[in-house]
């Protein structure tokens, strides 16, 4: 099964770049809390934590598949489930940010709406990648490897282009409030290793 191996490694590398972006919450904290903002951050962080774990698990499944001597069928099955899980997770994070409402900061509403739009966009992109991987021909090793290469390229683009609105949402006071939440601290832990 050597044919799919290098490509699948590329896929895993591209994926690990994208998956941790949502967890890149700021690590700095300050003591002058804003109760309203802290309550908002707690609601978002508590909702993000299980989804961050889901993204991490999906990422780990693909990483594992690349280190095993897996058949194209196994790779397809694992990647398909991982992309579906990631699509669901980003959608759920978007719903959580939407439900929490606008953070109590300047331009809070715009920041919140942009982040929700972006999270939903990332969710849709992963859903499209799932369809793409489902459609690959597992009987033809070379074709399958080419298909994976295309998916890795898309993933790479996704990891580079996404998350600008999330970064904007997490700037300044919002980031500080989030960094004070225990659930956000644990959600960010895996990000530091990659």
Highlighted features:
single chain, 194 residues, mainly alpha, 8 helices, 75% helix, disordered C terminus
| Strand runs, count | 0
- How would you name the oligomeric state of the polypeptide chains in this document? single chain
Mean pLDDT: 80
> Any idea what the radius of gyration is?
18 Å
Helix content: over 70%
State the helix count.
8
The main β sheet shows up as: none
Strand content: under 5%
List unreliable stretches of 5+ residues: 17-31, 188-194
Distance between the termini: 27 Å
- Coarse structural class: mainly alpha
Shape: elongated
The run of helices and strands is HHHHHHHH
Write the layout of secondary structure elements.
Elements: H1 5-19, H2 35-67, H3 72-100, H4 108-134, H5 141-161, H6 164-169, H7 172-179, H8 182-188
Helix pairs in contact: 1-2, 1-5, 2-3, 2-7, 2-8, 3-4, 4-5
Detailed description of the structure:
The chain is mostly helical. 75% of the residues lie in helices and 0% in strands. The chain contains eight helices and no strands. It has helices at 5-19, 35-67, 72-100, 108-134, 141-161, 164-169, 172-179, 182-188. Helix 1 packs parallel to helix 5 (141-161) and helix 3 (72-100) runs antiparallel to helix 4.
């Amino acid at each position: 099964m050597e044919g799919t191996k290098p490509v699948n490694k590329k896929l895993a590398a591209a994926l690990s770049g994208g998956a941790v972006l949502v967890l890149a919450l700021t690590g700095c904290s300050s003591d002058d809390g804003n109760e309203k903002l802290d309550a908002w951050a707690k609601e978002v962080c508590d909702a993000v934590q299980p989804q961050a774990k889901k993204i991490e698990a999906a990422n780990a499944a693909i990483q594992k598949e690349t280190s095993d001597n897996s058949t194209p069928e196994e790779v397809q099955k694992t990647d398909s489930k991982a992309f579906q899980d990631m699509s669901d997770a980003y959608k759920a994070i978007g719903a959580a940010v939407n439900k929490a409402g606008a953070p109590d900061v300047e331009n809070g509403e715009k920041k919140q709406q942009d982040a929700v739009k972006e999270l939903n966009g990332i969710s849709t992109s992963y859903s499209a990648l799932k369809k793409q991987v489902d459609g690959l021909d597992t009987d033809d090793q070379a074709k399958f490897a080419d298909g994976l290469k295309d998916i890795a390229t898309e993933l790479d683009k996704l990891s580079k282009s996404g998350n600008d609105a999330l970064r904007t949402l997490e700037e300044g006071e919002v980031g500080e409030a989030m960094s004070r939440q225990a659930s956000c601290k644990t959600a960010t832990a895996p990000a530091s290793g990659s």
